[in-house]
Specification:
Elements: H1 3-16, H2 22-28, E1 33-37, H3 41-53, E2 57-61, H4 64-74, E3 78-82, H5 90-99, E4 108-112, H6 117-126, E5 130-133, H7 138-185, E6 189-193, E7 199-202, H8 204-209, H9 215-221, H10 225-228, H11 235-246, E8 248-257, E9 263-274, E10 280-289, H12 291-314, H13 317-324, E11 331-344, H14 347-351, H15 356-377, E12 380-385, E13 388-393, H16 402-424, E14 430-444, E15 450-454, H17 456-466, E16 473-475, H18 477-483, E17 487-491, E18 495-497, E19 501-503, E20 506-511
Parallel strand pairs: 1-2, 1-3, 3-4, 4-5, 14-16
Antiparallel strand pairs: 6-7, 6-10, 8-9, 9-10, 11-13, 11-14, 12-13, 14-15, 16-20, 17-20, 18-19
Length: 517
């Protein structure tokens, strides 16, 4: 191929604007793309044929301007650049190539017939990688071209690896900055602790929770967590025993000391960190202050206890339990119970002569004592209505000796009134009525609900009280039959009972003496 055809071909290529890049040529199968710049057609022809036959894609230019254009479009792997050319010489061409970001890294080998050392120094300063002396030696050209192409590829690989490394470093720095920000600004305490119990790292939140000015102060002053932080002497040992068993613990609650000696509640999430051999390195985790939550829980617990106690003051315990479970229909039949009604005789007359406050205080003292008696005898208080007191035995838990329990309570109530009169100079008399039989018991109402009894047994017990004798305990025949072997009774003359006609009743006067069957 003669030089005229080479230049014509490349001139035509220049006018069409080269569209193939070095990467494209390499994919086609070339060993690399080389641009040869020389104003001598003979030199261009020799170099073109030499490098083309060696497997390279070769582009040629006869001046610096053409060279700049071809290099910008083709992005070759190597440039062979003559120094002495018309227009802009090789030095200026090289300077312009190195000034552009897109072409600065393309290796340049100067070709010159001059051997002036200053020219070589100038060329190297401009960025050239090597020199070829004209007339060129073919083997030397091949050797230097191959060497610098290999160096160029290696440099590109290193640049790519360096770029990748820089990206990884940047990503790690960004991640570290992100995690550092999280670490520094977290509201939860974050820590790492040695197996011996000394902080390795701590964030500001942890220092703040434990009352220290800074993480550094915390790390320096707390050298034994088990002794200095935990309120319970063996608390850390217990936690470590669990970690060794479970490896990770969640929401472990403990009481700890702050720096100022105040005790607070904390919740910890902790895990053991081990090396590849399974050996323990340290513990790490998070810690939060739950003191306010614990206070709220304690307040809620106290309020719940108070509510339950209040409920138990209103309802029998089994009924209260059913109500707490959400049951709303609470009614039950009991086949055999004993009901008591008691009333303070002439209390209405006293109320007209006594202030309301004093009146309430008198009733509170007397009925509180009755409540104590009910508890002692296993009797269930039902309610008070004015100066009347109602109680029952045999429910809500069935009891075989319910009549006996009520009899004992009735006799003790009379004794209690006598003692009260002696202490206060009052002259109260208690009228009590008792009856035994079946009843229905349950809760009525949805607001200010109460536990109550219904049935004829209840009505008859009320009649026994209202038609009884002041200071006496009147019982029905049914109750008498249950108690006649253990207690003394006086039979009353039959009298008219509302709704029942004439009835025989008995007055309970006391227990039988020992030995009286």
């Amino acid at each position: 191929m003669n030089i005229s055809s080479v230049t014509q071909t490349n001139h035509h290529s220049s006018s069409r604007k080269i569209s193939l890049t070095t990467e494209s040529y390499n994919k086609i199968g070339y060993k690399g793309v080389i641009v040869i710049v020389d104003d001598s057609p003979t030199n261009l022809g020799v170099m073109f044929e030499l490098l083309s036959n060696s497997g390279f894609k070769v582009l040629v230019a006869q001046d610096g301007y053409s060279a700049l254009q071809k290099v910008n479009y083709a992005q070759p792997d190597l440039i062979l650049l003559d120094i002495m050319m018309p227009g802009i010489d090789g030095f200026e061409t090289c300077r312009r190539l190195k000034a552009q970001e897109s072409t600065r890294d393309i290796p340049v080998i100067f070709m010159t017939a001059r051997t002036d050392t200053l020219d070589k120094v100038k060329g190297f300063r401009l960025g050239a990688v090597d020199y070829l002396t004209k007339p060129v030696q073919h083997e030397e050209v091949r050797a230097r071209v191959n060497t610098h192409l290999k160096l160029g590829r290696l440099q590109k690989q290193l640049q790519a690896q360096n770029f990748q490394l820089q990206q990884e470093i940047k990503q790690k720095q960004e991640a570290e900055h992100k995690y550092r920000s999280i670490f520094e600004n977290a509201t939860e305490g974050i820590f790492q602790v040695t197996p011996e119990g000394q902080f390795i790292t701590a964030n500001p939140a942890l220092a703040r929770i434990l009352g220290y000015q800074s993480p550094k102060e915390l790390i320096n002053q707390v050298t034994d967590i088990g002794q200095q932080l935990y309120l319970a002497p063996m608390r850390r040992d217990d936690i470590l025993a669990l970690i060794h068993k479970e490896e990770t613990l969640s929401e472990v609650e403990s009481e700890v000391y702050r720096k100022d000696g105040i005790v607070i509640w904390i919740s910890e999430n902790i895990r053991a960190v081990r090396d590849n051999f399974g050996d323990l390195l340290y513990y790490e985790g998070t810690l939060s202050d739950i003191t306010e939550r614990k206070k709220a829980e304690d307040e809620l617990r106290r309020a719940r206890t108070e509510a339950e106690l209040l409920l138990l003051n209103i309802l029998p315990q089994p009924v209260a339990e059913q109500l707490k479970k959400g049951e709303r229909t609470l009614a039950e039949s009991f086949e055999d119970v004993t009901v008591l009604f008691a009333d303070l005789v002439d209390f209405t007359k006293l109320s007209t002569q006594t202030s309301p406050t004093e009146l309430v205080e008198i009733l509170n003292v007397i009925f509180s004592e009755f409540d104590q008696l009910a508890e002692e005898h296993g009797v269930e208080k039902i309610k008070t209505i004015g100066d009347a007191y109602m109680a029952v035995a045999g429910l809500p838990k069935a009891c075989k000796y319910h009549a006996d329990a009520i009899a004992k309570m009735a006799l003790d109530m009379q004794k209690l009134i006598a003692q009260y009169n002696a202490q206060t100079n009052h002259n109260f008399r208690l009228r009590i009525g008792i009856n035994s039989g079946p009843v229905v018991a349950g809760v009525i109402g949805i607001k200010k609900f109460s536990y109550d009894l219904w049935g004829d047994t209840v009505n008859m017990a009320s009649r026994m009280e209202s038609q009884g004798i002041p200071g006496g305990i009147q019982v029905t025949v049914t109750t008498y039959e249950k108690l006649k072997d253990k207690y003394r009774f006086e039979q009353r003359q039959p009298f008219e009972v509302k709704g029942k006609g004439k009835m025989t009743t008995y007055l309970l006067t006391g227990p039988l003496a020992m030995g009286n069957g």
